[in-house]
Amino acid sequence: MIKAYAAMSKGSSLELFEYEAAPLNLNEVNIKVESCGICHSDICAIDGSWGISKYPMVAGHEVIGEIIGAGSDVSLHKIGDRVGLGWHSGYCNDCEQCDAGDHNFCSTTKKTVFSQHGGFAEQVTADEVSVIPIPSGLNHDDAGPLLCGGITVFTPIVEFNINKNHKVGIIGIGGLGHLALKFYKALGCHVTAFTNSDDKNALLKSLGADEIISSTDKSQIKALGPKFDLIISTVNVKLDWNLFLSVIKPRGRLHFVGAVLAPIETSVFSLMGGRKSISGSPVGSPLNIKKMLDFCSEHKISPMVEHFKFDQINDAIAKLRENKIRFRAVLTW
Fold first, then answer.
1. Is the peptide bond prior to 327 cis by the omega test (within 30 degrees of 0)?
2. CATH superfamily of 150-280
3. What does each C-alpha distance from 208 to 181, 217, 257 come to in angstroms?
4. Which of 28, 141, 262, 326 has the most CB atoms in a 10 Å sphere around its CB?
C-alpha cells in the first residue's frame, strides 16, 4: 500500500490516505518520491476550482525522486536514476505534436494530478517520456518547483528566442516571477520587476531586477514609454492591459503565464499600432524542461523555497493560501 495525503472532499484539509499501486504499463516507471513542491494549481485541484477534481484528491506535481520500478519497454531511464516529474505524467507519443517534440500540446495528455494520484505520496507512476533526469549540478532538495513554476517562465525564452539584447518586464514577483527574474537576468536581459509589494525591493534587486515599478501606478508605468520586447504576466488578477501594451516596443509581446480568470480586455488599436502580440503558454515539453534544468545547472539557479515535512502539509498549504511563502513550498518525507 502507498501512503499519501489526500483531500477527501472539496477544499478539505488533507489527511493520510492509502491506496494500492496499479501494475506498471510497459512504458511506465515508478518513482519513489523524495520531495514534492506545492503549487497554486494544487490548491485549485484540492478546492475543485476547475470542475475536474475527483476525490480522494492526491495533488502534487513537482516531484523529485528515484526510479524504483520500470516497465519492460522502458529505455530512457533505469532503476536508481534521480528524476523529476511535472504537470504531465503521460502522452500518446503518436500524434503530430508528440512527433514534433511538442508533447505538452498532445490532446490526450495524462495529468500527474487529475489523471491519477499525484506526488503528495510515497510513490508516483509516469510514462518514461514525461520523466526528466535531474542534472547532478542542481540542488535536488530545492529543484521540485522547477518542474512546473520554472518551466512555465522558461518556455517563452525558447518559444520567442529571447536573448541578452531584449528588455523584459515581469508582472508579479512570487512563485513564478522570482524564477523569471533569475532566468532572464542569467540570459543577460535588462529586467524590470512590476510588483504591488513595496517590501520586496532589496530582495528583488538581489534576484536580478534592474528596476522595480509599481504594477498599479499608472503614471509610473506610462512614464516608461515603449521600451519592452517582452512583458510576462505571472499574476491571476485583472490589470490595465492596454497600459502595459503601451510600454511594449513595436513587434513586442504581452505574454500570459498566470491564469487570469477574467477576460483580457484590450483595444485592437493597442495591437495594430506596433504590430504587437498577446499570447499565453502553459508549462512546457519534456525537451524544454531538460533544457531548463541544464540552464539552471549551468547558472546555479534554484528556486527560493521553504521546506516542510509531509506531516506538516496542511500548515504549508495554509501558509500558501495566505500568500506568506517566499516563494515556493517543498515537502519531503
1. yes
2. NAD(P)-binding Rossmann-like Domain (3.40.50.720)
3. 6, 22, 20
4. 28
Pick from 220, 144, 212, 149: which is nearest to 179 by CA?
149
At the topology level, CATH places domain 2-145+304-332 in Quinone Oxidoreductase; Chain A, domain 1 (3.90.180)
Give the pLDDT of residue 236. 87
**Helix (H) or strand (E) segment spanning residue 296:** helix 286-299
Beta strands in 154-304 (DSSP E): 167-171, 190-195, 211-214, 228-233, 248-256, 277-280
The helix (run of H) or strand (run of E) holding residue 132 is: strand 131-133
- Contact between residue 170 and residue 193 where contact means Cβ atoms under 8 Å apart: yes
pTM over 0.85: yes
For 248-301, the pLDDT digits (tens) are 999 999 999 998 888 888 889 889 989 999 999 989 999 999 999 999 999 999
